[in-house]
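Entry for the shared binder. Reason: the reviewer on the internal report wants the predicted structure included alongside the sequence.
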Amino acid sequence: MAGPELVPLPGSSREPAPQALHRPSASGTRDELYMEDITVTVVLRRAGSAADGTGASTSAAPADIELATRTFTGLGARVVETDPASRRLRIAGPVGLLCSLFGTELDTVSSVGPNNESTTHRHRTGGLSVPAALDGVVTAVLGLDDRPTARAPFHFAPAAVGNVSYTPLELGRIYDFPAGTDGGGQVIAIIELGGGFGQADLDAYFSGLGITGPTVQAVGVDGAVNVPGGDPQGADGEVLLDIEVAGALAPKATLKVYFAPNTDAGFLDAVAKATHDTPAPAAISISWGQSEDQWTAQARTAMDDAFIDAGMLGITVTAAAGDNGSADAQGDGSNHADFPASSPHVLACGGTRLEADGSTGKVASETVWNDSSSSATGGGVSDTFPLPDWQQHVTVLSGAGPATTPAGRGVPDVAAVADPQTGYQVRVDGTDMVIGGTSAVAPLWAALVARLAQTRGSGLGLLQPQLYPGEPQAQAGPGFRDVTVGNNGSYHATPGWDACTGLGVPDGTALQGVVAAGTGKA
C-alpha cells in the first residue's frame, strides 16, 4: 500500500553521529527494529506570532491540534499525549510506520556521545518529511533518532595543594545575596538528563551546613525517573550539585527536578513540562548542553520557542555556558557557542576562578576560569541566533585584535565561580567532594533569581533587558562586579561585558535594587 503524500520538514536534516558503527539485528535486516513500538514528540506551530515573546499565546491553535490528531491517527499512529499549551503531541507506533509517516529510515548504531561515551541508539541521517496535510503546521519531529543530545559540564577538583573551595552559603556571602530572602514561596525547576539523588545525601548535606533544606520533588518525563547510579563521578554528580547549590542558597523554595531521557525529544519535553507546570517556577536551571552546531535546526528552534514561553510566563531560564573554552570541545579549530546557553531567551552563565574569604565574603581576586583548552568557561558568539536588541552595544575582544560588535548573540550574560580548583563543596552518593564547572553557576543564579522574585512578589521572566546598559560602558553595570582578567581561549576579558564572564559576577543586594526599580534597557 502506498504511503501518505509527504512534504519536506525544514530544519530537520541530521548529520551522522560521531564514529557511528551499525549494529544489525540477528537476521541482518531492519525487521526487528522496525517492529519496535516507540514514541516521538511532534511540535506544532504557535497560534499567532511570538513577536519575541510578547503579546502572543503560547498555545497551538485548536484547529491545528485537531488536524494533526486526525491525520496521524488516520494513518495508523496513536496520539498518546496532547499538550496544547506547549504545542506538543506525543505520537506512538511501530518504527516502520513512523518512518513511513516522516519519510526517513532508522538503523541501530553505536556512536560516541557528547560525554565521549559509547552508546547504542536509533540513528538517522538527512531530512524528515511530514504528511502534506500538515505542511507548515508541524515545526519539529523529535526522538526518532534517540542519540544523546547533551553533556553535563561539571568537573571534579584535582587533589592539589593550595586548592580552595566554598560552601554555597559562603558564596551567598561573597556574592552578597540579598538579606531577608530565602526563596520562600518560590519554585526552582531543575532539568536533568540522567542520574539521580537520594534523600539521605540531601539530609546529611544540609544538616552539615546547619540549615533545613528545601522540599525536593522528582518528576519523571517520557519514562525517565530518579535513579541514583551509585557513581559519585557519574551523572549523579550533576544532579546532586544542582540540587545542593540551589537548595542551600534558596532553602525555603520548592525544588522540582525533572528527569528526562538524554535525547532532543526528552530535553524539550522536560523544559516544556517545567514551564507549564503549576505553580510556575521562578527559575528553570539547565546544566546540560552541547555545541549549538551539533543540534538540528528544528530542535534548536523548538527549544528556543519553549524558552520564549517561559519568559512570557514570568520564568527566568538559567543555562550553563559550557566547560570547554571558546572551542566548546569541537575539534575543527573554530569557535563554538554552547546551546541552550546561546539562546537569547535564557540567562547564559559563565565561570570564574575565585580567591576569597568565605567567612567574611572579602574577595582577593576573581578572574576568568581557564585551566586549559579543555577546562575553561564557555563563551563566544552564536552562529545561529542574531544579536538581541539588548546586546546591541556590546563588543567582543578576540585574540590580540580590536574589540568588535559581534554578528550574533554573545555568550555568556553573567558568571560566578566555576573553576574546580576553587569549587563547590557538595555531597554525592555518600561522598563529600569538590565540584566545579559552569553547571554549578546555573543553579546558583537560579537561586538568586528565586530570591529576587520573592522580593518583587512575581517572576522576573527574561532578565537581560533589565541587566544590560543601553549604551557602551567600560565598567561593571549596576548589580555586578566586573571580571577583567583572563581568557577562555579565543576571547579575552575586558571592562564591561565580554565573551568570557558576560556582565560579571553578581552583587545580589544591588541586583535587588535593579530588579525592583526595573532599571536598564527595556
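Summary line for the report: The longest strand covers residues 347-356.
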